[in-house]
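USER: For my understanding, would you kindly supply a protein sequence with its C-alpha cells?

ASSISTANT:
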Amino acid sequence: MDLDAIRKAEATEGAMTRLQIRPGTLVLVYAGILGHAQGLEVIMDAALRLKDRTDVLFLLIGEGPDRVMLQELQAQRGLANVRFLGRIDRAEVLAILKESDAVVVPLRRNDLFLGAIPSKVFLRRWPCPSRYCAECGWVGRATC
C-alpha cells in the first residue's frame, strides 16, 4: 500500500478540471495495462454505442501492447468520447479515480483466465465516505 500516494491524492482536487472534463460528464475509467488479456475492445464497443452522448467519457490510463490497436479503433469509429492518458503519476491516477463515476475492469473471456480475478475488483474504502479507490494496475506495483 502506497500511503504517500493516497495522501497526495486526498490532498489533490480538481483532476477533472485539469483534464478539462465538463462538470456533469459521466466519467468511466480504466487504469492499467492496455493488453490482450483485458479485452479493452469492449470499452470501444460501449463507446460506439454511446457515441452520440456528449455527457459520457471513457478515460483509458496506462500503456501496453494493445494501445495502438485501440487508438486505431477510436479513429476508425470517430470516438470523441474516449481519451487515452498514457502512463501517469500514481497519485494522479488515484485523484482521477476519486473523482470518476465508475471504474471499468474488463477481462477477456478465455479458458486461460478461468479463476482469474482482476486485482482492481478488490476495492478499498477511501477516507472520504462517498468515494472508493482501486489499484491502478501497474504491473508489480500496487497503489493501495
Observations:
- The chain has five helices and six strands.
- Strands lie at 26-31, 56-61, 82-86, 102-103, 124-125, 132-133.
